[in-house]
Amino acid sequence: MVRRRSGPGWAFPARAPWAPRLALYLLTLWGMLTLNFLLPRAMPGDPLLALMDPESDAYLADPGIRERILQYYGLDRPLWEQYLVYLGRLARGELGWSIALNTSVAGLLAEHLPWTLLLMVPSILLATLISVWAGAHAGWRRDTRVDRALLVAFLLLDTVPIFLLGILLLMVFGVYLGRFPLSGGQTPFASYASPWAQLADILRHLALPMATLTLGLAGRNFLLARNSMVTVLGMEFMQVARGKGLPEPTLKYRHGLRNAVLPLVTRFAMQMGAALTGMILIETLFAYPGMGRLMFTAVAARDYPVLEGGFLVAGVAVLLANALADLSYAWLDPRTREAPCPT
Amino acid sequence: MCTSPRTAAGRAPGGLAIPASSRPRVGAWGRRYLRNRAAVLGLALTGTMVGVALLAEPIAPYPPFRSVGLPLQAPSALHPMGTDDLGRDVLTGVVYGARTSLLVGVAVAALAGAMGAGMGIVSAYRGGWVDDVLVHVVEFFQVIPRFFLAVLAIALFGVGLDKVILVLILTSWTTISRIVRAEVLSLREREFVLAARAIGVRDRTIMRRHILPNVLPSLVVTASLLVGEAIWVEAGLSFLGLGDPNSMSWGYLLDSARPFMRVAWWTAFFPGLAITLTVLGVNLVGDGLNDAWNPRL
Q: Are residues A182 and A144 in the same domain?
């Protein structure tokens, strides 16, 4: 038996049937909601507290007004009741009211989310494709010059901070070559001759942020794809396939790559976390009108409801990515379908 | 299952023998490590950065945060990395920034490593409900978007290096405990552990003397990868303006360089280079340690 080393690539719990799995997701979601509820309440220097503290300058002398403010924010009720109110609001899709922008948080998120999806989805797909293909190729040509060159290139990509990568691309393609716009999601106040012109404008603005995110993410999975390919190549069925005299491309893609991809599927969810981090930084750098930019302006304005809403959306996105990875894993690897696999 | 029956004669004899094969041999893997060129390069990069961080005062030509020349001067003999928009020496900033970044990286790796190892060993060795709870906690932290949580927490609780470190520890110890747990699950059933248990060695002693030394390699490797990750996140937070305003940091330098990039590339280039080289160095060390201990791949 091959003793499989438990590296970061392997799933931690045995793959369970779907019902407990779903329960686990719900539990995680609940945990996230609770964290979102508790964090602001554990915050020191609550602005409302200052109004209630007789020592502070902002103290409200009129007990009636104090009472009404507490009542308005629900702070006169015990914590568990506030918690129930909070959950009830969420169930109705109310994420609160932005302090700085004076609109509903749900509306703000709905306005910015499409921009972010436009940036993230193609970037993640492209990055995965690039890193898996390059990693598999490097593993296939292990210890050759191609392997070493790819290794160095992707290792560098992985260590360069994503905002620095963005700065570099911005300088080269935006400033010196002047090929792409420096910031924004589309040209402000532009009137377009046709929807196609508008689409072209949006794509031109998308190019640099998307290239940055793609390159930044591509480095992350390369090593895993390479090592996975190397592991697969050492397995007995590869020797059998080779012994049968199968052509090289069949060996590489049908037998090697298809098996090497499996551990990468579990990484998809982690990829999501990295992509969200990159997204905040990149959108800030390029002044791109998505969620990350919204978060950044909310940070500057200490606009807590928006930050909380953003955290929640990000959390749910990662959770969905996890579920997707789980489902596709079961679909890709029939061995995990019947029973929880023995560890 | 885990309670070990104690016979009357079951006192552990002093100087319990760990089988020679399970004891890490320092000389052998040290040689293997040094034969790996990338790992040696990593060690050199990391060593240089640690030296710079420790000796910041004598190395840095000027005091940090102080305006010492004309603003936005290109690199020259006086200012090898130029000056920023406020006339501060960029080299000085990079040198002092090393201190902040490495402090965050090392603190997070050490504390999260200790916490993760403790939790991982105990939960895997004891099993039962402790293990169940831990598995779920780990799963939970696995899906939480760490950077978002850090942004939210820092925005709520105020900026500060201690808070950055705390958030990073709380969100990264689970990575370590997950790997340690998996190792311990297989170690627990090995002959030398069963033998120790059979002669009545206490569980706590087994965990400390027999289990811990054997998970140490994977523990050190995973923790060393955390260093780079932590440096990265700290720089990212500072880049968003959520860093500690009292400590010079590479992310802060990059953030303040942003409006002047078009006219003064050096204000962004050198701090960025410092981050890249440090993270690269630390990761190479981690990979090198992994290869030296685990030469199969």
A: yes
What per-residue confidence (pLDDT) applies to A97?
81
Q: List chain B domain ranges.
A: 26-60+86-293
* Cβ-defined contact of A156 to B178 (cutoff 8 Å): no
Mean pLDDT rounded to a whole number for chain A:
80
Q: Which two tokens stand for residue B192?
A: 């030398």
Q: Which domain holds residue A119?
A: 107-336
Smallest CA–CA distance from B135 into chain A, residue: A13
pLDDT at residue A174 is higher than 50: yes
Does residue A205 sit in the same domain as residue A72?
no
- The kind and range of the H/E element at A221 are helix A195-233
How far apart (Å, rounded) are the C-alpha atoms in residues A279 and B244? Answer: 22
Nearest CA in chain A to B146: A273
- The amino acid at residue A17 is P
For residue B239, the Cα-to-chain-centroid distance in whole angstroms is 20
In the numeric block, which tokens belong to residue B225?
């990868």
Q: How far is B29 from chain A (nearest CA, A)?
A: 19
- How far is it, in rounded angstroms, from Cα B102 to Cα B92? 16
* CA distance to partner chain A, nearest, from residue B152 (Å): 6
Q: Are residue A156 and residue A237 in the same domain, yes or no?
A: yes
Q: What CATH superfamily classification does B26-60+86-293 receive?
A: MetI-like (1.10.3720.10)
